[in-house]
Amino acid sequence: LGWRIVSNTLIWPLLIWSIFTENRPWGDAILLCATSAMALLGLRELFGMMDRAGIAHSKWLGYTAGALLSTLTYLLTCPLLEPWNAAPWADQIDLLTLSGAVLVAMGFAVFCGDVKDGFERVATTITAILYIPWMVSFMIKIFFTSGPAGAVYLFFFIVVTKMGDVGAYLIGGLFGRTRMMPKISPGKTWGRYLIK
C-alpha cells in the first residue's frame, strides 16, 4: 500500500505535468522517469507477490528489460531525438528488447542449473515483462506518435485507468467477498475484478 500512495501522490501528478507542460525537454525527461518508475515499481509489486507464492522468477532480468523497454521506446519515439527514431528498426524496438530478454532467460535456463525450474523462471519473468513494462511503454508511444492529440489521449488513458482502479477498490470491496487468488494477491476479489 505504501508504494501505491507514493505512486498516486508523486508519480501520477508528475506524469500529468509532463504531458501538458510547454517545456518539452523537461516534460519529455519527466515522462521517461515517471513511466520508468511506474514500470519498475509495478514489477517490484508483482515480484513480491511471486515471492510470497513461491513462484520462481528472475528479478534482475525483469528490472533490466523493464528499464530498457522504457528508455529505448523513449529514445526511438521522442521527436527531440530525431536521429534515433529514423532507424528502420525503431518501430520494433519493444519486440527486439523482448526477444533479447527471452534469449537471455532461455540461455540461463539451459546452461545454469535445473532446466525445469529454469523454464518456469523464464515463463514467469517474460510474463511479468509483458504485463507491466511493455504495457507501460505504450504510454510513451501514445504520447509521441499520436501528434498533437497525444497529450489528450494519454490523459484520457490515465483518468480511465485511475477511475477503474478506484472504482474497483471501493465498489468491489463492498460487494465482493469471494477471493480470486488468495495465495498471490489476498485483496483481489471477484467483485473488484468484475467492477473493473
Q: Which helices and strands occur, and which strands form pairs?
A:
Elements: H1 2-20, H2 24-53, H3 59-75, H4 82-85, H5 93-111, H6 115-145, H7 150-175, E1 179-181, E2 185-189, H8 190-195
Antiparallel strand pairs: 1-2
Helix pairs in contact: 1-2, 1-7, 2-3, 2-6, 3-5, 3-6, 5-6, 6-7
Account of the 3D structure:
With 196 residues, the chain is mainly alpha-helical. The chain has 8 helices and 2 strands. Strands 1-2 form a two-stranded antiparallel sheet. β1 (179-181) and β2 (185-189) form a beta hairpin. The radius of gyration is 18 Å and the shape is flat.
Helix and strand run: HHHHHHHEEH
Largest sheet: 2 strands, antiparallel
What characteristic shape results from the CA principal axes? flat
DSSP helix count? 8
Distance between the termini: 19 Å
How much helical structure, as a percent, in the residues? Answer: over 70%
Low-confidence stretches: none
Number of DSSP E strands = 2
Radius of gyration: 18 Å
Give the spatial strand order of the biggest sheet: 1-2
Mean pLDDT: 81
Secondary-structure-derived class: mainly alpha
Question: Approximately what portion of the residues adopt beta-strand conformation?
Answer: under 5%
